[in-house]
Amino acid sequence: MHCRGCILYALARVQIGGAAAGARLERMHAGPNFNDGRFVNALPTNTVSPDKLIETARIYLEPAERKPRKPGNV
User: Fold this and answer.
1) Most buried residue, 9, 15, 29, 39, by CB count within 10 Å?
2) In sequence order, what are the residues at sequence separation of 6 or more whose Cβ sits closer than 8 angstroms to the Cβ of residue 53?
3) Per-residue confidence (pLDDT) for residue 74, from 0 to 100
4) What pLDDT is attached to residue 1?
5) Confidence (pTM)
6) Average pLDDT per 10 consecutive residues for the chain, totaling 74 residues
7) What is the pLDDT of residue 53?
8) Is the dihedral of CA 18, 22, 25, 27 positive or negative?
9) pLDDT on residue 22
10) SS in 3 state form for the chain?
11) Are 33 and 40 spatial neighbours (Cβ–Cβ below 8 Å)?
């Protein structure tokens, strides 16, 4: 399981797409979600920190957790 965790961690850190430049970068900086040189999501999002990645992967990979729970059975 340790090796799988390393693979999941590495995959989670892969950047998709290339670096923005030129007109695209200018549009990004002018957008409402760009603040103090960083992109800020309009809505809060949950992220998985590296130390919780293996635990989170287990939750999604275990067969018992694959079926949605019924409302009220949280």
Assistant:
1) 9
2) 5, 8, 9, 12
3) 54
4) 47
5) 0.37
6) 65 71 90 87 77 79 67 62
7) 80
8) negative
9) 93
10) CHHHHHHHHHHHCCCCCCCCCHHHHHHHHHCCCEECCEECCCCCCCCCCHHHHHHHHHHHHCHHHCCCCCCCCC
11) yes
**Where are the chain's structural domains?**
19-65
Residue 66 tokens, joined: 């694959």
User: Which residue shows structure tokens 């275990």?
Assistant: 62
| CA nearest to 6, candidates 38, 58, 42, 53 | 53
Cα–Cα distance measured from residue 49 to residue 41, given in angstroms and rounded to the nearest whole number: 17
